[in-house]
Design goal:
Length: 175
């Protein structure tokens, strides 16, 4: 890992990098770093395109991860722990901390339990996204919902030179 001084930036660019980590909003980071609000969007895009800026931002992110000890494992473990906790049935308590009860069919008082299904489902959704279990698919259709089809070309009418150009342009294996 690099030290703070390994990547030298002017003070304004250094401030941009540090401000960017606050909310990952490059325009706002540029404004907070002292760039003009009118041109901040343009400056921000230009700064993010620079390798030195990207390297410094990554360096600052890595230091923050090390400092706070939050990484993908931590996030996933927290989601799993929360899901497991929310799956447990918990007694419903009144303001004094006493269990709320209800009479069963025999007239006996039984405590009421709650289950946080929304939190369980949200946690499962986050884990599913991490595991790429869900994919968004979009159906693309032509005019009036008709299927799309490629135009039919009679290749026999194309010149040899044109065929060679087409092959070179669309030959994925040579790229």
């Amino acid at each position: 890992m690099r030290k703070d001084d390994d990547i030298k930036l002017n003070p304004k660019r250094e401030m941009f990098c540090r401000e960017y980590l606050i909310d990952l909003n490059a325009t706002q980071a540029a404004i907070r770093a002292g760039y003009s609000a009118k041109t901040a969007n343009t400056y921000a895009a230009g700064l993010l395109a620079k390798n030195s800026i990207q390297a410094r931002i990554q360096e600052l992110k890595d230091k923050r991860i090390e400092r706070v000890e939050v990484n993908a494992d931590y996030v996933l473990k927290t989601i799993i722990d929360t899901v497991e906790r929310c799956k447990q049935a918990e007694p419903v308590l009144d303001r004094k901390g006493d269990p709320v009860t209800v009479a069963d069919e025999n007239g006996e008082l039984r405590p009421i339990y709650k289950f946080d299904s929304q939190a369980v489902l949200k946690g499962a959704e986050l884990l599913g996204k991490h595991l790429a279990l869900f994919t968004d698919r979009h159906e693309v259709t032509g005019k009036n919902g008709e299927s799309l089809s490629a135009p039919k070309i009679d290749m026999s009418k194309l010149s040899t030179a044109t065929l060679i150009e087409l092959k070179a342009a669309y030959d994925v294996s040579s790229k």
